[in-house]
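step=predict obj=Ribonucleoside-triphosphate reductase n=48
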Amino acid sequence: MNPKCEAKVEVYSRVCGFFRPVQQWNKGKKEEFRDRREFLVEQSNGKG
């Protein structure tokens, strides 16, 4: 088992076309960010 890394990282997200550090967001935006879900969009093969 690998040891857990406790290093602090800075997370960026795109807002209105700009990448901003999540740490600088207000409380409401941080809550919205935590509620986000990732979706996998399959590529279309161009048929039907």
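step=describe
The longest helix spans residues 27-35.
step=end
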